[in-house]
Design goal:
Strand order of the largest sheet: 1-2
Subcellular location: Membrane
CATH architecture: Up-down Bundle
CATH superfamily: Amino acid/polyamine transporter I
Distance between the termini: 42 Å
GO molecular function, one term: L-amino acid transmembrane transporter activity
Strand content: under 5%
Helix content: over 70%
Oligomer: single chain
Number of strands: 2
Keywords: Membrane, Transmembrane, Transmembrane helix
Protein name: Cystine/glutamate transporter-like
InterPro entries: AA/rel_permease1 (IPR002293), AminoAcid_Transporter (IPR050598)
Amino acid sequence: MGLIFFLNVKTVRYLYYKRFLFQINAVLFIYQGILEKTFNIMFSSGALCYAELGTSFRKSGGHYTYLLETLGPLPAFLQLWIEFIFIRPAVATYVSLAFGQYVVEPLFMPCVAPTALVKVVSMLGVTFVAAVNCWSVSMAARTQVLLTFIKMFALILIIIPGIMALVNGKTENFRNAFDSDSLSLTKLPLSFYSGLYAYGGWFYLNFITEEVINPNRTIPLAIVFSMVTVTVFYVLINVAYYTIMTANELLMSDAVAVTFASRALQGVAPAIPVLVALSCLGALNGGFFSSPRMLFVGAREGHLPAIFSMIHIRRQTPLPAVLCLYPLVIIMMVRGEIFQLINFASFSRWLFIALATLGMIIHRYRFPDHPRPFKVPLAVVVIFTIVCFFIVGLSLYSDPWNTGGSCALTLSGVPVYYLTVKKSYIPKRWKKAFNYLSLHLQIFLEVAQQEVQTY
């Protein structure tokens, strides 16, 4: 990436632009860092791969559906298993904890906010989002649109003063920006997990393919547009943060936007944590809107109890799947810590994303005539898959406790699959009791199987 300036101007104007060019070079220096480039490449390549998968397979369910269609039922079940019992609750937990942190932190500055209060506020946020997604699909969608606009407004409000300070010559934080005494290859995948989490989200649309109008056109356009928008905004907001704050100050802050606002936006500083908290609430709502569709599809395929494949008879929401996710998030929140949860959950998430794109390569070879309205160059898919497997493998060495535990938790689904799905060894008495409970839950929740096939 580069900038070409045609400076056929008078000498006075040249001296003015010379200062401005130095500031632009500082921005480009940050943007052209190794990790930043890698995040963008990974982000873009993965998004394009999922655009092809979303237009090739018209079922909802995201990773689960693609693994089922390309690699078979066992990998698909393992993905559903770890998503069901850990990944989705972990993701929702650390987003809700961020929401609680931004709500509570301003009330106690400069002191540290009480952890118990942060978790109580986080639970209230999760409860609100779960209630909205149980009540109405259209209400959840409208809430998501509103919170997305609030997020964009908050980002712009932070970006503008940061860029203005940069233009005015505040570039000292960019000097020797990559000097470090603690560079280590073993820390690379863990930094990738945090970075890729920030740039992720491009696969959520694939969870609701059956509810998308004209997915062959909508999915690629939505992914490409969102990919460009997120990249531009996140690069600019990081430049704004580093203009006002040093790297150590960023690491020490529990709520970066609050610290930034107290320095650069003193007039509207109280509004920033509220806006960021609402942004977190939007991310949480998006997860509750999309992820239960994976449980819904898994139950429809027979990999989960049938109750999770049912929808409310009037509200048309996947009520049992949403209600199942809610208590898992609350339980995990009691002892959750954000960065441990990111590392723990990211291992399995990126393992199955790599398997999904590997399955796409295999499916291309086995079924070359399968309709693919949007097709990605094979080299892009291969490189993305190799990099994903490399990061996942190296993270086992970097953080064996968290990533090893995530790996063990994933493999624990193998006996569950063979005992409950492949061949049912469940005692008849247990089956009878479970069917009795499911029937009464169906009546109590007012849910039934979908009548119209949507795929």
